[in-house]
């Protein structure tokens, strides 16, 4: 059993991932708790690192109590844990320190090995978890794979020749895709995090209404850019008289139909960029499958467009997608990545 800890941003998470024996590839998520601090950050329009660290310090003791109760309920002792995995980078420094110190202290007192795991890379393992179980050998025989992680802080494209032989082929030059969702949502008057609000109102909008720019879509490489899209939405709102000096002044009076059309058009622009770049990489690298992960993949329109585009590919292409529960930050994916690596 691996104990996994996640604390890179504003979610505190603890998970227990087990397998039948040391050589088994099948795993079970025995326990997975996530404590979100999102309400604490909403008034500030984004995550405040100092508040995040303070909330982690308050939340982890509660999660540890839940872990202890779980172990007791199963008649298990802490010594059933074989190692401790934790997300050690990248993230907000104050948040990372809380998780790292917890992991180090537990490893010290329980005399267990520590396994640091890269948080962004770990998102690629969340699609292996379905109904709280999975098999780390699912990717086997599928390499090379292309992996896309889209979160509030990252938009990163990987090529994996195996789980340990991989390279980053593209990153964002400015905003991350999640950041673009959050900033555009804010201009439309929605609270942080804005991604889910954009997805919700986009259902009633026309994705073709506003031809927002698709940054770097024809750049011929795998770099991403979303800041032009954000600026374009800002100028549009300004020109319509809803924004002065870069601040949305009347967003509450924005008509719902306008909000819906902007949300749908901006969402489509983000999806077009993500799908085009990722599937071009799949073609270039002869990938048999594409893994998509990260909080933004909680968005069903993204999954739909990936699946539709995959059907147009010359060769069959499997799209690996996380369940919504495991798309956003959690410790289970850290534990599964730790098992696989
Ligand atoms: O992976 P994650 O939980 O945290 C980071 O590692 O950043 O991702 C959070 C991001 C936020 O920007 C949030 O707005 C976005 O994921 N997000 C969404 C949706 N749900 C969360 N973006 C678009 N549509 C959604 N349904
Ligand atoms: Zn994340």
Plain-language structure description:
It is a single chain. The protein is an alpha/beta fold. The protein has 2 domains: 2-129 and 327-340, Nucleotidyltransferase, domain 5 (2-Layer Sandwich), CATH 3.30.420.40; 145-321, Nucleotidyltransferase, domain 5, CATH 3.30.420.40. The chain has 11 helices and 13 strands. It has a 6-stranded mixed beta sheet with strand order 5-4-1-2-3-6, with helices on both faces. Strands 9-8-7-12-13 form a 5-stranded mixed beta sheet, with helices on one face. The radius of gyration is 21 Å and the shape is globular. The relative contact order is 0.17. The protein binds 5'-O-[(R)-(carboxyoxy)(hydroxy)phosphoryl]adenosine and zinc ion (ZN). The site of 5'-O-[(R)-(carboxyoxy)(hydroxy)phosphoryl]adenosine has 20 residues, from helix 5 and helix 6.
Give the arrangement of secondary structure elements.
Elements: E1 2-6, E2 11-18, E3 26-36, H1 38-41, H2 49-73, E4 83-89, H3 93-110, E5 114-118, H4 119-122, E6 133-135, E7 145-150, E8 155-160, E9 166-170, H5 177-187, H6 195-202, H7 227-239, E10 243-244, E11 247-248, H8 256-284, E12 289-293, H9 300-311, E13 318-320, H10 324-327, H11 332-340
Parallel strand pairs: 1-4, 4-5, 7-12, 12-13
Antiparallel strand pairs: 1-2, 2-3, 3-6, 7-8, 8-9, 10-11
Bound molecules: 5'-O-[(R)-(carboxyoxy)(hydroxy)phosphoryl]adenosine and zinc ion.
Zinc ion (ZN) is lined by residues 119, 123, 151, 294-295, 329.
Write a brief structural summary:
The protein folds into 2 domains: 2-129 and 327-340, 2-Layer Sandwich (Nucleotidyltransferase, domain 5), CATH 3.30.420.40; 145-321, 2-Layer Sandwich (Nucleotidyltransferase, domain 5). Helices cover 40% and strands 20% of the residues.
């Amino acid at each position: 059993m691996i104990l996994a800890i996640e604390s890179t941003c504003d979610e505190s998470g603890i998970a227990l991932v087990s397998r039948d024996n040391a050589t088994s590839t099948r795993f079970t998520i025995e326990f997975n708790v996530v404590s979100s601090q999102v309400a604490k950050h909403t008034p500030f329009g984004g995550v405040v690192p100092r508040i995040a660290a303070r909330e982690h310090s308050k939340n982890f003791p509660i999660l540890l109590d839940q872990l202890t109760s779980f172990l007791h309920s199963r008649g298990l002792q802490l010594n059933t844990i074989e190692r401790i995995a934790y997300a050690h980078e990248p993230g907000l420094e104050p948040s990372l320190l809380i998780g790292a110190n917890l992991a180090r202290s537990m490893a010290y007192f329980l005399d267990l090995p520590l396994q640091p795991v890269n948080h962004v890379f770990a998102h690629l393992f969340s699609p292996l978890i379905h109904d709280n179980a999975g098999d780390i050998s699912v990717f086997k025989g599928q390499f090379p794979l292309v992996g896309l992680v889209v979160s509030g802080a990252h938009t990163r494209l990987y090529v994996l020749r195996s789980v340990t032989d991989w390279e980053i082929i593209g990153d964002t030059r400015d905003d991350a895709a999640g950041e673009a969702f959050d900033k555009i949502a804010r201009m439309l008057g929605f609270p942080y995090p804005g991604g889910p609000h954009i997805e919700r109102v986009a259902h009633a909008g026309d994705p073709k209404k506003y031809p927002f720019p698709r940054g770097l879509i024809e750049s011929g490489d795998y770099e991403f850019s979303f800041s032009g899209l954000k600026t374009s939405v800002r100028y549009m709102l300004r020109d319509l008289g809803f924004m002065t000096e870069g601040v949305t002044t009347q967003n509450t009076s924005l008509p719902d139909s306008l909000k819906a059309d902007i949300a749908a058009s901006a969402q489509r622009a983000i999806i077009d960029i993500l799908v085009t770049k990722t599937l071009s990489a799949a073609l270039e690298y002869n990938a048999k499958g594409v893994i998509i992960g990260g909080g933004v993949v909680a968005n069903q329109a993204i999954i739909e467009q990936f699946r539709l585009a995959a059907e147009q590919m010359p060769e069959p292409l499997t799209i690996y997608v996380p369940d919504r529960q495991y798309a956003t930050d959690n410790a289970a994916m850290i534990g599964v990545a730790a098992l696989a690596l």
